[in-house]
Structures are given as C-alpha cells and as structure tokens.
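User: These chains co-purify. Model them together.
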Amino acid sequence: MQAQPQTKLPPPAASANDTKPILQVKDLKKYFPITQGILFQKKVADVKAVDGITFDVLPGETLGLVGESGCGKSTTGRTILQLYRPTEGSVIFENKDLAQLKGEDLRKMRSNMQMIFQDPYASLNPRMTVGDIIAEPLEVHNIAKGKEKKERVQELLQIVNLNPYFINRYPHEFSGGQRQRIGIARALAVNPDFIVCDEPISALDVSIQAQIINLLGELQERFGLTYLFIAHDLSVVRHISDRVAVMYLGKIVELTDSKALYANPLHPYTRALLSAVPIPDPVIEEKRERIILVGDVPSPVNPPKGCRFHTRCPLAIPICKEVAPEWREVGNGHFVECHVV
Amino acid sequence: MSNTLLDVRNLRTEFATQDGIVHAVNGVSFVLEEGETLGLVGESGSGKSVSMLTVMRLIPMPPGRIPSGEVIFQGNDLLKLSAEEMRQIRGNKIAMVFQDPMTSLNPVLTIGTQITEALELHMGMNNEQARKRAAELLKMVNIPEAERRLDDYPHQFSGGMRQRVMIAIGLSCSPQLLIADEPTTALDVTIQAQITDIVKRLKRELGMAIIWITHDLGVIAGLADRINVMYSGYIVETAPTKELFANPLHPYTVGLLGSIPRLDEGKREKLTPIEGLPPDLVNLPVGCPFYDRCRFRTEKCLQENPPLMSVGVKHWSACWNYEDVRQQRDAILKRTALPVAGTPQS
Amino acid sequence: MATTTIDLPAAQVELEKKARPAWLETWQRFARNKPALLGLLIIILLVLTALFAELLAPYDYRQTNLDAVEQPPSAAHWLGTDAIGRDMLSRLIFGARSVVFVMFVVATLTFTLGLLLGAIAGYFGGWSDTLISRLIDFLFAFPSLLFIFFIAATIKPGLVESLRSFALANNMPWLTDFVRSGYADYLVVMISLSILGWAGLARLVRGQILSLREKEFVLGAQAVGVPHWRIITRYLLPNSLAPIFVAISLGLGSIALSEGILAYLGVGLQPPNPSWGNIIAEHSVRYWRTWPEMIWMIFIPFAVIASVVFAFNFVGDGLNEALNPELHD
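Assistant: Joint model of the three components:
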C-alpha cells in the first residue's frame, strides 16, 4: 500500500468560513410522546429520538450521517425536511427557518429540498404508473403541463438510466435497483438544491448498490446537488462523503471531514465503530485490532445521565457519569462531544 | 486435519411455482473438512441459503424438489435418511443459526427452557444437568448473569443477545458442523463484531466446522478458511480465502470486489458496478448464467456453461476466459488505500 | 453515462410504447381466475333476473291456483307449484329481486357509513377515533342475531303501527298500501343488516388509513410537496379501496345469506313477499312426509342461495388477487 498523494485539496470544512451554509441545524430535538390510557390518553414518557444536535451543510458537499439502528439518524433527516415537526430547535434552509413555516409556505419550499428513501418497495405508490409518480412533483408545483411534462418525465428517466418508454409501467414490474432509480428521478424532478438520502442503498444487493452509488455521484457533479447522506455502513459513507457526522443515541458525537474522521477518530464510539467495520481483505483483517464494545445501546426513553456513551465506553472517567460533555470544536472544523479527548 | 466431514455432490433443488420451475440450486458440489470454516458468498437468489437448507432437509416439499444430489455427512447420505434419523442429526451433529434473531426464538418459552430442550432430547441429560450446561453455554457467548437470565423470556433480550442465545443453542450439543445463515446481517456493526469475535473464539475452543452464509465479503474475509462464490444456483469460484481475494479468477468475483466501497479508500474511488440483473431462475440460459453482465464474455460462453476448472492450488473457477480475467482484472480492482485507525499500515 | 444503462430487448421496448390502462391489467389478472369469472357470471345473471323479473317470470309470484297445488315440474310450471298453487319458478325469480334489492340498499348504506366513519377515525384520530372505535367494538361484541330479533320484535310492530296510523291520519292511501303489502319487512331487514354491517367495514378502513399514513410512499408524497387533499385522493384512498372492494364483495354474499336466514327464521321477509329463505321454511315443514318427491322444493332455493354466496366469495377472492399485483411478484 502506497501512501496517498501529497497534493492535498483544501478540505471542504476549511472553507466553512467563506462559504455560507445551505442548511443550518441548531439544537434540533425531536421527541415522540408515549401515551397510555384508553379513553383519556396521557403522556407518560418521551422517546428522545433526536436530542439536541447542531451542524451545517455546505453547498455542493455530501455530509454523511452515520450511526447504528435507533440512533436517530433517519428521524434527523425526516425532521429536517419537516416530515416530522421538530420538538425544539431550528432548521434554517435558504434563509428561512423551516420549523416556523406552515401550510402552503412549507409546501412551496419542498421544491428546493427532496428525499430519497430506503425501501424501494415501500416508497413508490403501487397504484400510480412510473410516469405519474415522476410527474407528481411537476404537477403539484406547477412546473410543467401536457407535452412538456411528458418530455420532462422521459428526460428524467434517461437521466437515471432507465428506459424512457417505461412511463406506463407500475412499480411492481421493476427490480429493487430500478425502483430506487425511479425514486431518484422523482426527487430530481423539481431541480432541488438539497437532497436527504435516507439509506438509499441498504436494501439492495451488493452488485446493485454500486450502480446506485455511482449514479448519485454522477448526479451530484452534473446538477451541483448537496446531499445529506444517511447510512449505517461506514464504508459507503466514506466513499461518498466530504464530511461525516457520527450519531449515538440521539446526539452527534463527532463531526469532521472524512479523511480526518477515518484516519484520526477522536471519540471512543467512532473508534469502536470504525474498528468493527470489516474490510474485504483477509490479510488486513488478520492483523486488525478490534475494539469490542460491551453491552447494547441503552433505550432512548431513558438515556444515561451524563455522557450517553459512558455505559459502554472503554475510556470513561467519573465525570462522564455526571456531566454531559459539550459540543466543541477541537480544531480545523473537527467537532467532538467527549470529556476524555 | 484433513478428514472429510461433509461431501456434497451434484446437489440440485427446484421449486414448482405459478410461473414455472425455479431452479434454485443447479448442481453444487463441494467438500468440507473437519474443523474448516467455509464461506458461502452470493447475492439474493444465488442459492446460498437454499443449498444449505437442502443439506439440512428443511426445504418444504412440495413445492420444493431435490432432483439429484448426495449429501455425505460422516459417511451417510443425509438425503436418504428417514425423517426420524434426520431429526437425530439436526441440532445434534449439525446445528443451524438463522438470520433473524427476532423470530427464531419461541416467545412464550423462557430462554432456559429452549436451551435445555435440545440437551435433554439429544444428550439425555436430566433437568438439573441441562440447566447447569445451559448456564455454561450462555457464559460462553458472553451473556452476563447467565444463571439468572435463564428464566427470562426472549423479549427481555436485545437483538444481538438473542443471536448469541441462538448460537448457544446451536452449540449446545457440541455439533461437528454449525451452519450460520447470515447471522449478523440484521445486526449493527458493533454487535456484528461482538458475534464474529465470539464465533472465532468458540471455533478455536471447540473445533467444529462452520459454513457461514453471507452476502458481505468483508465479514467473511476475516472468518473463513475457504470461500465458495455462488451465482444463480452455481458455485462459480472456490478458493482458499487469501487466494480468492488476492487472485480472483471469475468475472463475478472480480465484479463483487470492484463494486463494494471499502473503509480504507477515499471519496469517489470509482466503483465498478456489475451491470444489469441476475438471470431469471425459471428460464436459465443454456450458456454461462453470468453472460449478460460479463465484461469478459465470448461466443463460447453463450453456448456452453463452463464447469469449475482448476486454475491454481485448491482454486477452481467456472469461467472459460479465466486467463483474460487474470490479465485484465487489475484495471477494475485498482484503487488507492488510505489510512484507517486500527488497521495495520504497510 | 451509458455504462449503467439497463436496457431491455428491443421487442419489449416496442411493447411498452402502447399504454395499457390500469383497469385493463386488473381485468386481465381477474380473468385468469376461472372461479371468479364463473362467480361474476352468476352475479350478472342474478342482477338481470332481478331487473327483468316481470318479463322472465311466467306467473305472478302471488297468484294462487288451488286447482294445481303441489305439482311436480311440468310444461306449465317448470319447477312445479307450492301448497297453494303458486308457481315456484316465478317465486324464485322474484326472490332474486328481493335479495338484490336488500343487497343493494344494505351495501350502499354500509359502504357510506363504513367509509366515512372509518376514514374519520383513521385520519383525524383523537376523540373521534376513540368514540367510533368503541362503537365498533360494541357492535362486534353484541350477538348479531339477537340484535336483529330485538329490532324485529320491538321496532317493527311499532314502525308498522305508526306508519299505518300516519297514513290514515293524513289520508295517504299509497302508504297504507305500502304497509299492508309487507314492504315494512324489507325496511327491518335492511336497517338491521346495515347497522351491523358498517362496523366491520369501518374497522377495515380505519386500519387501512392508519397503516398507509406510515408508509414511505405517503411520506414521499409529503416530501415532494403534494397537498393534503391530493394525498387523500391519490395515495390513501386508491390503496385502501382494494381491500374494501374485496370486503364488500365478500360482504354481499353474507348479506344474501343473512336475508335468507332471517326469512327462514321468520324475522325477515314474510310470505307473500318472495324470499328464497321463506320458500325453504314453508316447504321444510309441509313436505317432510312426502320426501323424497318434493325434496327439490327445498333443494332448488337452497342451491340458489348457496351458488350466490359462493359467487360473491369467488369474485371477492378474484378481486383480491387482481387488485393486489404485489401479491404475485
């Protein structure tokens, strides 16, 4: 293995000072109430799915958001797009706080931000033809009508490398990878600036995953898209992201540019997560040292006091059990939430 | 160790469906040595799970059918055994762990009852002995407070813990062979690391053979001694693990390696996906099943399905053009490695 | 980007140029199911018989002929006559009209009530959901036959009585005729079956809407910015209609059966109103001793009811398969 080329491009995070973020998330919280009772429902607790996270997304970049199941990464994506309304905090997108927008104003904003879903079998309306599915955003935002609309739909199908004659087919006639392309075409229909990709490849077979990853990369270059890429697979996230945020139990624990995160992770959770990801190379695997975490992720209904990771952390010190660490920058756009670092 | 434990010969499995006969497994042959770990790698529909369910005689018949094949386990052909004789082997000499830890335990019985059941049935233990052994087994798979947890029900365990319980049940009768069907696919990576860690340790301690079914080349790289790559119900390549990763000689294996992003690579190292889709298992082509998606294909591939051919030491590939693959694959697989914390740097 | 194109063979592409409408595909899937087609044929025959009963029936279904009682089948009476000389075939044909009339009204009422109340409960939730769900639970928990007996025993006499005095007081001879002719029987049957019928449908609709709202494609529509009413009409309703149609088709069979049972038990349509159920009831008592010559008197209405119930069940199954293409992937 050769050392990587020394010609370093400035990491996107370094340009944070002179580039205005396209999206600013501040202290975002999303709690889901747990209610009890048959006639009189009352709230007994909250699932703290997202519990105070702050980050920026810069124009044209891909910010990867990784974490294990139940860490709140998908909820974060949906709350940013206001599919779930935030419990607290703000989501500033193109100078407007989406959390404050309602009704028609919010609906109109949706032509600038889009989402690609995880499950290609559940994310397309089975009763609509592919043509109607892709035309839907064009119609509801009054972008195109009639012949122009049809041409645009066919163009979109070609953009995602599907046969433009497929417009009269139904979703069930397509394979998983093809359905994901249809979902991407729908998201592109309104020419959005920003797309939340919520685990867009994790339901697909390995050989098909690469097709979709490459397609997303090509589209980003071609249309200058900004992605928030949500995934549990750190290899995929490294492949596609400029910067990466790591989530654990409703909090972002570390955020920095991709290269730094993988070469020099600071948070003990990030280190454990990275060491757990297998590398398809038996020679490397033989010599790797794994940090095996003990136990399981605690429940988001009653997250541990102090640092949320202290129950599993190999480096925990007494203060971690009492005081929640602060979100702080440790240099050059590298943020971390840990007492020990 | 070079005693043959399992010898599968020309195994075929098919299913009658509304659309026609699905040819799920199409003449699979391989040998497993005692104490060996074999990886079975493939995507959905490759026949990797069905072939092992056939070995275990767990295929529902009908619609399933086993038109040909022998499964010689310790000298007996499992396909010729009576249902009763097969029951004696299942869970006793061959154990199986499934993908979904949420549904493979009975929700109305305690964990203790479910482990002791097999011990009492196959090992002839009394209740007290079985309980003691059950607690030992739970300790073996790193479940804390094992004695107390025997009286808990499955819903009181997390997904990762349930999968460890399943492994404990699988190992309860000290089987010679453990078949693990994607046991970590439904789990998070940190939990996956816990499980693979435990399995590696147990294999060292107990010395059973393992067949590990997976779609994840990363997981299998650190586990298996040898790997069978499956596609459309055929084994298309088989080699010792290091040899397979260093010297892949089937276009599909090369395609798989070229299409997965790796943790130790930078952004946008170009992936080389495998184009198109796998063939319809109802209408398999006469020639090579990978023909449509293959970048090395020739006229011969269309007409004749290549058999497994010896291409190196203990290395077989089902490709007419494996020499072309050897010469050209580096262009597909060449990528630049970047440092990752915790990985050895050369 | 030609590298990642997935192309089908040219022939198939040609085929795709012709748009095939959704209903045609659904019909083709339905038509592949032979029992469902047979069921549909029986239903069409049933409806045609009901519509054109006057043209088809050789006699008036009320017309007695004491010179020809208990006749076996003959050229004059294809299916023979009953104890007071009424033509069996004509009674069966008008019986079809009764059952179709009851099914039509009951289905309309249950469909409207079920869809409306189920959708309100599922979409708005909260108090409306609690109220409607409890009502549904109550109706499910209550023994339905007992409920109908209750209505027949309490409401029917009162209803008939008040209608009669209302007609007298206001000098409305047509209403008097209506009451006297026994049409009040229909009202009782239809009201009780509707009250009982909507609850099952409402529960189904509520469940459908609740589960659909969580589906990714509904979230996807929201993310695209599809307005509320359009989500309801293009996403929620079309996807919940399939199981509703299936339930209604299966439900129609059971309405036909219930109508027959009620008539047989004497709480539904009473003679001289024609009902397959009361034909069985009349003959089951009268012709016990003359078995087996007269068994066809019971067997024929029995076979007719059974084939109608089967027909609706087959069509329901066929619809289920035809409307859910995903089931067959």
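The longest strand of chain B covers residues 4-17.
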